[in-house]
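#struct-pred

JT: dropping the chains for the assembly here, can someone run the whole complex?
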Amino acid sequence: MDVVLASHGGGGKLTEGLIKEVFLNKFKNSFLNEMEDSAVLEIDFERIAFTTDSYTVKPLFFPGGDIGRLAVCGTVNDLLMRGAKPLFLSASFIIEEGFRIHDLNKIASSMAKACREAGVEIVAGDTKVVARGEADGLFINTAGVGLVPKDVNISIKNAQPGDRIIISGTIGDHGMAILSSRNGFTFDPPVESDCGPLVGIVDTLNKFKEAVRVLRDPTRGGVAEVLYNISEASGVGVEIHEENLPVKPQVLSACNMLGLDYLQLANEGKLVAVVESSAADKILKAIKNCKYGHDAAIIGTTNDTGQVTVRTPLGTSRILSRPLGELIPRIC
Amino acid sequence: MDVVLASHGGGGKLTEGLIKEVFLNKFKNSFLNEMEDSAVLEIDFERIAFTTDSYTVKPLFFPGGDIGRLAVCGTVNDLLMRGAKPLFLSASFIIEEGFRIHDLNKIASSMAKACREAGVEIVAGDTKVVARGEADGLFINTAGVGLVPKDVNISIKNAQPGDRIIISGTIGDHGMAILSSRNGFTFDPPVESDCGPLVGIVDTLNKFKEAVRVLRDPTRGGVAEVLYNISEASGVGVEIHEENLPVKPQVLSACNMLGLDYLQLANEGKLVAVVESSAADKILKAIKNCKYGHDAAIIGTTNDTGQVTVRTPLGTSRILSRPLGELIPRIC
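RK: done, full complex below.
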């Protein structure tokens, strides 16, 4: 069995074989092995977070990650952005006939590894096969369920004027990694995707939960889109300080060369946090001690102007450009 | 805005516009309008059912339904097959650039209507756009969360020798509807897909819950695959009686003509129930009074042979053929 055949999608013995050999082997848990129509999960709680994303990233393997790691981390991070503890994922595969089983195995292994890092299990799944030319290799959908602790109230609507804005690390790495791998240019040192689960950082933020108002991961549309989302949903203005924005020198110079704004590039292992100003320094310090949090920075403040602006090192201020549409297609 | 553009997938203003105009309009609820990274849901329970399916059906519109109705009913039915009350769905769209907004609107409306019928809400979503030729029009993933009542214990493993097997209606309608619409042949009267939510039938079955052991919807792989699944998971034999199998005459004659086995055709609004024999007649009568249950029938019994067999009207018995692989690609 080297490639996926149309008959692997038929729902019979061959489908079962593919699922067992490629997926169950790696996503080992009692729920999946049952092969029931739904997983039944016992959880002691009152509120759950529920989210979904389909992943169509191109190429499937890129510096710093692959579609499998992305599909786990992206959905885990969306749960975390509501303050939830991620618990369970579903994984659904749309596979183009002829796709190499070797690559499918690599991707499933990568998903299993990311699940272990994030502390989640894949408990429900689905596999569809379409003919050659009807999909581009592989698309993955993951949905996620997490537990929201009783006293957590994190929402895009909670920012207040005078808050501080923190980014958990360097900006634009995922977008630039995809762009460079797709167009065949390299950096020295190389730019890798930041694709990773933010479980550790959010665990740490939960220790300051009275002070944490908004969490958002700046994926498609980048930090710029997230700042506009926060401004609109909370009815606040946002000012960021250009000299405080953490960005790798290679990403910055590539952006300058290509005429791109790194604030509009996708990130897949970063979060933007809006926190109460008096706790901002302590929170920043705590994030810096986390895995994936080393380059965290306070990048700005909220205000009551209603505008989203950037203050330049010269002291002038300009309206931040908001992404209109596609900057880089199939970034995630 | 007539067709979907690549820039509709970029995560910026245009993505937001597409989501608001096409989806939020139809899937109206407070969770989606928040446009947060995850929906936070308050539910009072201890056990939830969680499932996912991607839908790649071709064509997107077929007699009796469309991909939207299918994507809602398929996932709702998978939750119901564990005895769960379906509550919340996510919906994720992978759209080929150039797809007509008019068709997307029709499909979203159809999803909203199916949700109302099933009593569920779409509370989380995602939209990705890929270039022309990178997907075949539209793929939809739905994941679902449902509440499992404390005293419900329905599982593919629960069948016991001597139980009765009930099918909730005519067999093979969805498969034949897709096949005929794809190949341009028509029936008089027409064969329509049975695509529908089984909420009413499962509500009724819950009144007999001590007697209901297994529920399974015979989608890909058809009734034949489900009978094999039950046999293997519960360690029982199954014998079905050919003369008791409900099948529309047009479906039967088309199967004979095309050399197909209707027991291997997909159904999208039917369930197979394994019930305690003493309650079978009462349960059958109750199902027959439900929407979508009019043609229900007791089709066989379980035994301790370990084999899955068909008894013919002549009194002879043969091993039921099990679907190996693809019978009809992209059936759901």
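JT: nice. Chain B touches chain A through 84 residues (CB under 8 Å). Chain B has a mean pLDDT of 91.
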